[in-house]
Protein: Purine nucleoside permease
Organism: Apiospora rasikravindrae
Amino acid sequence: MRFVYQSALAVAYLCVAAAAAICNGKIKPKVMIITFFNSEGEIYLTKSNTTGALDFRAKQHRVPYASPEFPYLHCTADADACLMTTGEAEIQATATTMALLADPALDLRETYWVLTGIGGGAPDQVTLGAVTLARFTVQVGMSYEMDAREAPPAFNTGYVPQGTESPGAVWGSVYNSEVFEVNGALRDTLTAMVDPARVADSAAAAAYRANYAEVPAFAPGAAPPAVHHCDSVTSDTWFTGAMLAETHKRRVDLWTNGTGTYCTTAQEDGAVLGALVRGALESRVDFERVAIVRTVSDFDRPYPGQSVMDNLINGTVGYPIAIENVWVAGESIARGIIGAWNETFKSGVPAQNYVGDVWGVLGGAPDFGPGRVSGGEPVVLPGAKAQQQMVKSAKHRTRRSRFQK
Ligand SMILES: *[C@@H]1O[C@H](CO)[C@@H](O)[C@H](O)[C@H]1NC(C)=O
Ligand SMILES: *[C@@H]1O[C@H](CO)[C@@H](O)[C@H](O)[C@H]1NC(C)=O
Ligand SMILES: *[C@@H]1O[C@H](CO)[C@@H](O)[C@H](O)[C@H]1NC(C)=O
Ligand SMILES: *[C@@H]1O[C@H](CO)[C@@H](O)[C@H](O)[C@H]1NC(C)=O
């Protein structure tokens, strides 16, 4: 059972002695590690005693409205790095991120948000244990869905973009959570902090991935784990099998205007980013300071001759190394950001690409989607603080992308 009542009761909503600094002033993390369920968060705590590693056990702070399963923010003694676990899937991920944004004890204006979790992997891009850093996350579950057995004969899937009449249509009705794009320059800088030699592998993973070797397109799936640039999908439904994987890969292509690369499946990334866009509109966070890291615990489809159920049930041999690599990647990135704070990260890594949502509410010109709502300027909400810096960088991005075309 993952639900631990005792820890909540034992520490209650009180400042423990060790957390005095946290109670008396704002917690102002340079890095906020976001994880989604118990094992992803606990690896940071159990590895905290590793020589040279960030110790996330030093302080804890109870976040109002956080998941009852994960009520605490865990931080290093100086609170430079903090760790939160949201609870799984979209509702919990959004609710916990909003809880962080709403917590008056936190100053998040300069914080880097590093999402680190495990996910399924596409064998034409990645293998078990792989570390991926994304530029896009695509909410593939946002769809009309009919059971494929009842779909028109011409349809190759039961998923159809909402507001359209064909699986191959691009945009119909837009809810504005379908796609989020994050800072590519930041991603590149953070990638350099992850030492490929430290990416964990295992004999069990090696034996399992060898089954993919006979398909030439799955060569990346049969190779040892590495560090990759490719994109995540967000869906509450844990889908599996080649047909749904191909359907969602096509959706990533369509919704990122051909610039995204489908490689990992998970249930939260877009949900966190949707809340962070709102935080940016209120000047609570800087949306240029967001990174999406996913490590691969299992394949999104079976190997030749294997059943979908066999891969789903028996294919999680990559789970231990994926959890280990969540920490390998996330802790390295956190240390890297803190270590180069003054010279690089305090002032920010300017985005060269569009960052934000489908509608462009943070300003700039989306390089995907049906068009921005605000003419390249950020939306200014009634009564919200003017966002001088964001307006400036949004203009910069708009100008850049016009020159690039
Ligand atoms: C670190 O903690 C883990 C679990 O709490 C323990 O098994 C391990 O021996 C500890 N390692 C060191 C170096 O203290
Ligand atoms: C999982 O593997 C075991 C052992 O090989 C096998 O008996 C079982 O049928 C597999 N499960 C599925 C759903 O294929
Ligand atoms: C970074 O800048 C702060 C404020 O100027 C200073 O106190 C601190 O010592 C600097 N840190 C490093 C590692 O240079
Ligand atoms: C999508 O890509 C096409 C072809 O490269 C390009 O003409 C179009 O402007 C792009 N759309 C957006 C919104 O950038």
